[in-house]
Amino acid sequence: MRWIFRIVITLIILVVVAVAGLFLVPTDKIARLAEDQFEKNTGRALSIAGEVSPQIFPRLGVKLEDVAISNAEWSGKGPMLEAASMEMGVGFSALLGGDIVVEAFDIQSPVIRLEKSKDGKANWDFVSELGGGEDGGGSADVSLPLAQITNGSVEFVDAQAGQSYVMTALDASLKLVDLKGAGRVDLSGLYKGQSVKVSGTINGVQQMLDGGVQGVDIAASAGGNSFSFKGSAGLDPMQAKGAVTGAVNNQTTLFALMDQAAPRIPEGLGQKVKVSGELTLTADNQIFLRGATVDLDQNRLTGAVDVALRDTPYVTAKLQADRLDFSAMSTDTTEGDGAANAGAGGWSDARIDVSGLSGVNGEFSLKANGIDLGSVQLAATDMKGALDRSRLVLDLTNVGVFEGVVAGQFVVNGRGGLSVGGDLRANSVAMQKVLNDFAGFDRLVGDASMSLKFLGVGGTMNEIMNGLSGSGRMDVGSGELLGLDIAGMIKNLDASYQGEGSKTVFDDITASFTIEGGVLSNSDLNFVADLLTATGNGVVDLGGQTIKYRLAPVALAGRLKDGIRVPVIIEGPWSNIRFRPDLKALLDTELEAQKEQLKAQAKAKEEELRAKAKVKEDELKAKAAAKLKDELGVERQEGQSVEDALKQGLENKAKDALRGLLGGN
């Protein structure tokens, strides 16, 4: 029972002390002291229009009702602060000695108006208005162990920028034992409907207010996003240097704070962002981040990032990464490989959203050990890029893809729509992987060197592929054409030499092509294989995903005269390509050969008859010449016709007869 008795005595003593303390509190004196000291330290008038009453709990002091703090002389917005009540705590030990030492303020439901005039003056710049302390040689000596705001609101009007901001449900606390020493602030509230929290410590409050650089440690969060900084900073001009971390976990709430709609960013490019590194902020709004680690969703990059804060930020980055996953950039929603499935279901009609390209300008370089683009897998990658007003240009220095290397330029232009284009060169790429990923065709096995220029315009993959234009060339080294035995088909005139297990081994394939309206056209295919060569021409409808092509192979040309020629037709949708011998063309070729043979035979017969006729003619001419000689005594001279010789002979005979009649010689 003794311990219960002691507790009761202690409680009685506490009650007596509390009641005595209540009578000790000089309420009017404290109120007048508060008004005088506030105006002395800030240059602003503190008015107390309501009651002033003593209180014990939660701290010894007074409660002031209907409190207001005057605004700057140039402001026309009313009091800088209005509050229904303010609780002022005083030191108990000092009060017993007859002194009043203010240890705490607690302002209930205040309305705080902060302003910046068109000429840059701020209504919270108390010290500047004071011009220093009483001796004119320094700042006012302010000490406030604890100041609190509960359920307040703050309005900030920036006349220079023509903007205003409002925070409600404001709860804040300030601990400032010495204005020239360290101060700590903790703040929470609602801004544009989002929860905002800020806490931090400044090593020298007055020095920072006077334009100096001081040590700071600050953390902030808003709408599920966070930021922290530890280092040194200054306010006029704004500058900072130290360690920084940041996390964007909710793009929607972040952009809502800036009155903007959040861009649609594919997963892997920064739906959620984490950043850490050594930050430098200069007076001309330049941010330099060194030793940076940037997490874009599941992707981590390291390096250096510079940002120029403009209406549209300009970012310069030099980054490295291990493996990056950008597979969500693929717009195909079918199961499995998007491009391969396109062969069965057509190109995707899902809209491709590149609005995120408008949020920033800049240039970057990236080296990565691998990049997953969904339908395309990149190996070791070295690239540079530039983004200017929604137009992204990628310069590919050395990009490993499809077991080979690609270099060149790739462009995504989001200005007023969407277009994609490129000028690419590839070496030793595996054609089976290329065609399988882009066309669902896996029958051509071999490494190729390629060049390609292309341009596609449209808001979906379907529109882009159906409007594609360009040109290129392909050279495939030794390899195999699966599912088709061309030599067997030709030798046996049998279309069944195809399907699983059938193949044609080749030494080289070369071809050039053009693309117009989504249709690839080729007319100079050259195919070389053992016992087989072929030429080809036809079209590949990239938009409609069909092929119509004709091969003209020649088999066993080295063993048989003219070889065996049977054209092969390749046609159908990509999902069901068919191979068949072109028997009609074969018959047409055979008929044409027979026709030519008959022509040759007819010509030979004609020549034979002509020769026989010539012999007969010569025989007759010889007989006529002999007869002329025997009967007329005329010997036909070389080059003289039979007729002329006959005429000469008759003339000679006539002359001889005439001379006989006349008796002449």
Automatic annotation (TrEMBL):
Which InterPro entries does this entry report, sorted A to Z?
A: AsmA, AsmA-related
A Gene Ontology biological process noted in the UniProt record is: regulation of protein targeting to membrane
Q: Where is the AsmA domain?
A: 7-247, 343-524
User: Which keywords fit this entry according to its UniProt record?
Assistant: Coiled coil, Membrane, Transmembrane, Transmembrane helix
Q: What species is given as this protein's source?
A: Litoreibacter janthinus
* Identification of the protein by name: AsmA protein
> Which residue stretches, if any, does this entry annotate as coiled coil?
588-623
Keyword Membrane found: yes
Write out the GO cellular component annotations: plasma membrane
Q: Which domain of life is it from?
A: Bacteria
